[in-house]
Design brief:
This protein is of the alpha+beta class and 167 residues long. It has a single domain, classed as Gcn5-related N-acetyltransferase (GNAT) (Aminopeptidase), CATH 3.40.630. Helices cover 31% and strands 34% of the residues. The strands form 2 sheets. The protein has a 5-stranded antiparallel sheet with strand order 1-2-3-4-5, sandwiched between helices. The longest helix is centred in the N-terminal third of the chain and has 18 residues. The chain is globular.
Length: 167
Amino acid sequence: MVVIETNRLYLRCYKEDDFEGLHAIFSDPETMANYPAPFTIQETQNWIKRNEARYKNDGFGLWGVCLKATDELIGDCGLVKQTIDGTIEVEIGYHINKKYWSKGFASEAAMACKQFGFHHLGLQKLISIIDPNNLASIRVAEKIGFSKEREAFIFNKNHAIYAGFPT
């Protein structure tokens, strides 16, 4: 089931056979440089299960990002509830296979998720939690119209919170 469609991509709920493609992304040290460590097999399996629970409980989560031209899974992008300083916020998160970096796919998928959050879900604010050293993710947040709102101590270290609002 397609959840969101763009010019070049479609985003859909994870499928059983997505594990291999997702684990290739999450186990890569370069891709996961801003996480505590690359994911183990179990951590990738847990990631998929958590998002399947989010689809059921929240009506959204991180979705598989697929190329329309080939149906290849190239990453994930979506909306995730996060607690920041005691407040529940909805974050746009994204991970793209490094062989597809610098082609605009993260920005395209994130923009579609932004529109989904504001226009379909009626949210009044979306955020992205970004390691201040992750310049590529900062550029994606800025391309979709987010700006730095503040810093917060999250996941055991300081992160920048980029925020966007409906226009």
